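Record 1 of the preview.
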Amino acid sequence: MYDVAVIGAGVVGGLVARTLTKYKLNVCILEAQNDVAMGATKANSAIVHGGFDAKEGSLKALLNVRGCKMMESVCKELGVSYKNNGSLVVGFNDEDRSVLNELLERGNKNGVERLQILEKDELKKLEPNLSENVTCALYAPTAGIVCPYTLAISAVGNAMDNGAELKCNFKVIGIDEIENGYKLSAENDAVEARYVINCAGVYSDEIAKMIGDDSFSVHPRRGEYILLDKECGDTVSCTIFRTPSKMGKGILVTPTVHGNLLLGPTAFDMEDKEDKDTTAEGFANILGNTHETVSGVALNKTITSFCGLRSVGSTGDFIINSPKKGFINTAGIESPGLTSAPAIAEYIADMLKDEGLEMEINPEFNPIRKSYHAFAEASQEEKNAIIKENPAYGKIVCRCEGVTEGEIVDAIRRNPQPHDLDGVKRRTRAQMGRCQGGFCGPYVTELLAKELNIPYESVTKFGGESIINIGKTKGGQA
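->
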């Protein structure tokens, strides 16, 4: 029997598991998909919010501000890219200015540091490409950007390096109360744990119902995005928001930590928890709002688009509670969920202590994890030394992103091990450039097949039935 089972290997579940391995606990992570970071974590705005938007006194406000302060050090420990680039919420008229003043007051009450209203002249110096129609903005210098899926992957990997176990393709379909804990069942497997943490994202309400808790519901909110080439990454330096509405923070324009430019998201409430299709209506919304906010966005440099589903709870706040002893819900973790994740993990650990779980410090816990991009970030002298020791690091596989064979093989061999092309992509950025895997995809497939000791044609794009090769076109039967 495990001490703690964490359901869901997104950024919240990953950081919860990692935090729990700081103690002498037997921890298991249960993930329904083929890999970690497959839900909202892999498709969001990647923003570390300052904390001025959430209602004073709410869990969102408390955990957002705390998480923002923690994020840089957590990322440093886990080898994850983070940049403190600041954010601007721009206004166009007196009505917007009134909203910005309200956000300033709220942010000050929440404990956000160094917030200020900037006028047009100051804004144009800071962001020359802002629209001429922008008159003022709320500036949050503590805000930042991060790579959310790398954070989740590295958190899970660090948890595993410190003794946690990961079970992918484990979709929880039933939970039974047993003596001293719970039995969690999948189609062909089951685990037992004394304590359970529900971090199942858009499915967290369904998991809660398995123990008889129907006190909340969760629905998905579709968010579509457009990603531009690295040529466009310096169009803005800060993250640029519109004044918020009841549907969220609106369409943003932001650089990414890897140098691209990201536009979005849209906000459409839905019922289908699997519908991640992009739409013409969504793209029109993104483009229209972007042109109103920032000038000179080179939309002809678009390299991909995608859609994510945010987990919107029925209470208007994060839902973190314990409906039964030994069972903790972590639900409705929409924005600013990514920012709050390190603080949520601390919060959960404290709840477990209050529930009576013995939390003895693990003296062997190692918080440090090497970056997936350590080679790319090394000096030329360091690279030469690495290549001399392992020539695979001198062979470029992904020309768009400059990713080497050595980096890909290293990623396949590390915790948590990827089993498909998208898993390698999220870890190394191979296939993320202009060609989107058109040139490097076949060779990455070959490396996966070799390292996993499986047939070439059984390598998938993202698990399940996402087959990409059905046979040879030359030199054999088609």
